[in-house]
Amino acid sequence: KAVSDGAIGWFTIKSKQGSDMVQPGRSTYVCTSNIALTDVIDIKNCKVVRKLSKGEGLTVLEGPIEDENTKVPRIKARAASDGVEGWVTVRGNAGSVYAEESGKQVVVCRRVALQTAFEADSSEVIRELAEEEVLEILEGPTEEVTDPPLRIRCRAAADGKVGWTTLRSDSFLPCSSTYRCVAPAAMHDALSPESAATVRRLEVGEEVELFEGPREEVGFGVLRLRGRALKDGATGWVTVAGNQGKPFLEAVPPE
User: Fold this and answer.
1) Complete DSSP assignment for the chain
2) Cα–Cα distance measured from residue 25 to residue 36, given in angstroms and rounded to the nearest whole number
3) What is the pLDDT of residues 195-223, one digit of tens each?
4) 112: how many CB neighbours lie within 10 A of its CB?
């Protein structure tokens, strides 16, 4: 739970790359009975700041530390209700419990999403958690077991750049070797239509077998491919989509 606004959700403690998204914060306690909040740790020489009521929340600032005289554990804490600070006895000599740990806090060290559900890849984002935000742990930590990412080294057909990318079903589809004409388009004998001769016009519904590309034609800022018209075997370059986004060819899904 975010201390700043009470937003509740799930967040990632350590990223898949091994980066820590949060760092340990303070422990929280809750009073199990009425108990004094004092100005110093020494019970015999302290003054009562105020009385804490059963159920009040405390954020630990220091301790637990054993009082030298009484040998009881004490914590320096901040009351959640009004921010008043002081020392509290956690447990008495006879074993009576006055305050018990109710949870722990963490501090965000890298911006991370607060999400609606446990699954990081599929749940919705409530909001982004900023650096230095304080969160109260309500459940967990729990490890999320996921399949290891599939990485492929590939070359972009458009510009020939080579590099690594993560293969995901929602980001990539099998490449089709056949395209269908969805708008009348010219087939040229060269990549650049400016200096090329027209082989012939393709009509709507015609299919083209891919030979090369798609590649970017820099002069016009369009994607072009080289292929063979299945209707008559004519070979040449055809624009896949115009520079305004108008499609001329669409991939035929592989069977």
Assistant:
1) -BTTT----B--SB-TTS-BSEEEEEEEEEESS-EEEESSS-GGG--EEEEEPTT-EEEEEEEEEE-TTT--EEEEEEETTT--EEEEESB-TT--BSEEEEEEEEEESS-EEEESSS-TTTSPEEEEEPTT-EEE--S---PPP-PPPEEEEEE-TTT--EEEEEE-TTT--PPPSEEEESS-EEEESSS-TTTPPEEEEEPTT-EEEEEEEEEEETTTTEEEEEEEETTT--EEEEEEE-TTS-BSEEEPPP-
2) 25
3) 899 999 999 999 999 998 888 888 888 88
4) 21
Beta carbons of 28 and 8 less than 8 angstroms apart = no
The pLDDT tens digits for 32-67 are 999 999 999 999 899 999 999 999 989 899 989 998
Q: Tell me the residue type at 114.
A: L
Rounded Cα distance between 87 and 81, Å, is: 16
Spans in the chain with pLDDT lower than 50: none
